[in-house]
Amino acid sequence: LVITFSLFYFFSKAITEKMLVRALKGGKNTKIVTLSGKKITKMPSSLDKLPGLKTLNLQNNRISKVCSEISTLTQLTVLNLGNNLLEEIPEEMKYLTSLKKLHLFGNKICKFASGACDGLQNLILLNLNNNELAWIPQEISRLKNLKYLSINHNQLASIPKELCFLKNLFELHLNYNQLICIPEEIKFLKELQKLLLVRNNIEVLPKGICRLKNLRILDIAGNIIQTFPSGFQNLKLREFYCEGNPLFLKEPVTAVQQDDVWSLQEITSRFIMNELSEKNPFVMQAITWHPLVKNIMSQRRKCAICGKYFLTIWLECVEFVPPSKKWKISRNLQLVPLQILICSYTCFNQRGPNLFGIAQV
Ligand SMILES: [Zn+2]
């Protein structure tokens, strides 16, 4: 037995109650309850009489709190609480161990209650669009089966690296937030096919993005990106959108720049890093006594020309490559500017014809 209620043209408490009575008559055979757009302010506490419920649609109401009886709905697979007045992802969610789809869009959610993620081991889809989230807890990593995560139109300034441990994630929507960067750990999202980052404040994409072998759709329109990490051109994208970014353009000018004076730390670091890469046994042994130095060395970068290492002083260059013919791209994108780092002017003078220094004009 399936009882469904469609939208009525007028709403009244009497109708809501009548519908509930019908649902309750079905008892454990009632699979679906839809009470959307009924101006409900409180969730019906009689839900605990419907242990077989699979789908509960309560969208477009005025619910500000989830009732404790929801914890009895262990068979529930779809819960829609979109367009209500919730202020947090309630702790009670942890009892919904069969839940696959959770819609919480259009609320006033600014936090996850502690433990909220604990029981949602089967969750596949989480829609948090149009809320007030400024941060996401590390516990998000417990949603192990999550495939679709959408947090458009929130106030996120960052995402935790733990989000990148959701290894089944297929789609990640983070449009219209205030993200400044994306963690390098994004490389762990091996299944990711669609990444939407429209209208954020991202300046640099992490190098890890180049390792997303399954990524097919990337939208970074409306950010402040100037160059892409090298290796970006090898992504197997189908669609790539980047309008509204101040991308570097290939407009060569002649400029003279002063050679940098390296700091003592830079000179020593380069010496140590390059001795290490040549496996100098004395330096290799000495470094084990200095974990702090080892830690600093882990920040090393590699010169694109000579292959040697450097630490904090480099020449930022740009290489222009044509976008892959297989990419469906923004109309204005003719050449993809890739960030290339070079260790010195000596190397800069040996560069190829497609490599340019960046001039301040
Ligand atoms: Zn070099």
Automatic annotation (TrEMBL):
Top-level taxon of origin: Eukaryota
GO CC, alphabetical: cytoplasm
Alphabetized UniProt keyword annotations: Leucine-rich repeat, Repeat
Alphabetized InterPro entries for the sequence: Leu-rich_rpt, Leu-rich_rpt_typical-subtyp, LRR_dom_sf, LRR_domain-containing
UniProt xrefs under Gene3D superfamilies: Ribonuclease Inhibitor
Pfam families, per database record: LRR_1, LRR_8
Name of this protein: Leucine-rich repeat-containing protein 69
Lineage, uppermost ranks: Eukaryota, Metazoa, Chordata, Craniata, Vertebrata
